[in-house]
Specification:
With 196 residues, this protein is an alpha+beta fold. The protein is built from four helices and eleven strands. Helices cover 17% and strands 36% of the residues.
């Protein structure tokens, strides 16, 4: 009986992995016109189909969130650690705020942005430009019914903007659903920006 249960669990894991809609990360450099030190990068989750969802980025004691740079992340005094801390109108007029470093799910400013965090200390990221590290556990998330959790025609979901003079590396775990409602979890997905 125990062997049968283990076999079924194994098949379910394989089936779940096959249905996973997250394909990988896309990193894209954004022009900041030299108004802030360093380069500005955006990191997107690439999905398989229009309508696929990503609504939780998380870390735990085994699978940590780690977002690091070899030099500090740039932080605008007018912004915050979350994209929803940036006022849309002010960001359009202030090039330094426009290049602020932040995390998100699907939204680049405060407009209709319902993202929140849980047990994720971003104080040193915001005050000193330090790394984001989940420690034992932490997450940023939105509700699955929020529009920002869905990818659109470009099959991308924005997860962060990072400005730095250094080289960036990151590791995240993700949860979401396919457009058909199948849940997925992806552990320890990595990305790099500005590596030589």
């Amino acid at each position: 009986m125990r062997h049968t249960l283990a076999s079924v669990a194994c098949l379910l894991i394989i089936h779940s992995a096959a249905l996973a809609q997250f394909k990988g990360f896309i990193t894209e450099q954004i022009e900041n016109e030299g108004k802030v030190p360093g380069k500005t990068w955006r990191v997107y989750a690439e999905m398989t189909n229009v309508g696929d969802q990503l609504f939780v980025v998380f870390g735990d004691s085994v699978h940590k969130i780690e977002i690091r740079s070899t030099k500090p992340f740039y932080q605008s005094k007018a912004g915050g650690a979350l994209s929803k801390d940036s006022n849309r109108k002010e960001a359009s007029e202030d090039p330094q705020l426009k290049s602020d470093s932040w995390i998100t799910i699907g939204s680049e400013d405060n407009y209709n942005n319902n993202m929140n965090t849980l047990n994720l200390d971003l104080s040193l990221f915001e005050s000193r430009g330090s790394a984001i590290d989940s420690g034992k556990e932490g997450a940023w998330f939105c509700i699955p019914t929020d529009k920002q959790a869905y990818c659109s025609e470009d099959k991308r979901i924005l997860l962060m903007q990072l400005t730095t003079e250094g080289q960036i590396s990151g590791k995240l775990s993700l949860m979401g659903k396919s457009k058909d409602g199948e849940s997925y979890t992806k552990y320890d997905q990595t990305f790099e920006c500005g590596k030589k």
